[in-house]
Here is the input.
Amino acid sequence: MRQESSTGGWQRPWAFFLVVGLLSVLLLVRLVYLQIVLGNELRDKSESNRIRLVEIAPARGAMLDRHGHLLVTNRPVYTLYGVPAEMKKDTVAVAKISQILGYDVETFRRKVLGPVRNSFLAHRLQRDLSFQGLSQIEEQRDILSGIFLQVEPKRYHPTEVAPHVLGYVAEVSQEELSQFPGSKAGDLVGKRGIEKTYDQVLRGQKGWRLAVVNVFGQEVGDLEKGPRVAPVPGKTLHLTLDAKLQSLAESLLVDKTGAIVAMEPSTGEVLAIASSPTYDPNVFAGMVSSSDWERLLSDPAKPMLNRATQGTYPSGSAIKMAILAEGLESGEIPLNWSVSCGGALRVGNRSFACWRKKGHGRMGVLDAVEQSCDVFFYTLGLRFGPDGIHRAMKRFHLGMKTGIDTGSELAGVAPSVEYYNRRYGVDGWTRGFIPSIAIGQGEVLVTPLQMCAYMAAIADGHFWREPHLVRAIEDPATGKVEVPDNHIAEPVAARPETMELLREATRRVVMGSHGTAHSLCDPALPMGGKTGTAQNPHGEDHAWFVGYAPFENPQIAVCVLVEFGGHGSSAAAPLAGRLMRAYLNKEQPTGVKLLAAATVETQD
Here is the structure.
């Protein structure tokens, strides 16, 4: 028994060494096979053994005018991406990339690579590479670690019209992320106009792909049979704008400062909305240079200001229909009320002149609007005071935001007793303030958009409608069309007979023999309208005209404001006439304007 135990103990170590030896031989054979037989193949694979997640930017939604013409779309550009963790290992590559992108190395590290939180993810280094930059990247691509190029969509404005309302896109900052849900720093988002208001609709959803990169961080292709999520394009906006009418409106304002707005009275759809001076919207389509941005901001003409929605001005006499409506609706005056105009009205120790120095004589309610008699409205304003003028303005949403879907809108001022008490103190103002605001001067401030909506309400005769710019939203992937139905249509707080009287008054302004806009008189195209001249402490008076056509069944309402234009009848009314005739495909008869100018005194 002891001998067998001794022999078995002696044999077990040899068995162990035998097993170890066999495994070693197998391992050696496997290593030889991998190193020699499969060496080249595995070496190639080892150089492509990392995978990078790459975002794919969606195409931002297009914008079309009411006839399907492209206003805003996209075109492809090259964007340079880099993985900071891979780039930082290669100081030569960082130096070359800095030079190509126009930075010194230290600035590039601080401004471009410094803010990056996750240095192992790809980050945009520059959008819309220039041809020169693209060429340099391509020439040196093999020695630039951690970078790659990707084709992405860039905003493009083929017609270059309506930049103030269409808006622009730019990179969202870290501080703005809360305003744009679902975005991250560096993403393009709408910063102004419709681009901003409808950013969530236009932006779409990002996709992603898996790319294979080598040990130098250079992309060598997509992962075969790897998962991929296609980006979802943004939705298409069908706008209310008429591109041809918009272009005409902008051309009428060339070399002028001012705004033009045109609306469809029966719907509130904005047909044109122009502001001058203007700017090229394609400046903002890619990366905006600091010099371009500084030039636009420092320009004393303020081309970035949308005067149609952000410019506030005294309305001048264009507000007189609203003042008349308040007089009739409040019961302060009857329909047969009249005032004798001798050329001025004395209030306390001040004398308020009428624009017609020799006076108009006896003026009834229709005569006073047709000939724009100031003394009539001074007297009427004194009867109901600042609160009555406040009610007159609010009835037509003057001095308050309209709610238009382009954003960046100012309200203006509709003065009241409370307003004066707050601004000047209870004893700081007198009745002498009232005559000025009764004719749209003094503290009265409105925007051209408000004035167009006001005239559209008079043209319609029943409703004040919220101006809007989007008719429909279309999903290009499914073809589904959504029509927004949340636009306000508010009945005007006035009796039908009052609204009809206002319409007749505006008809006489244009078609009447003594109308201040009689230069537009055309029996083939009856119109309604009202001129206005607003005093300007900084220079020549501002010129207004608000109107609509045709008188029966109005299809277009227009507001024209020309800063420093002088009289509304000569500076603003002709522009409105051209716009309305163009929209309705009507030609102005030869000689009508000359005859009117020779026979009618029109200075308002």
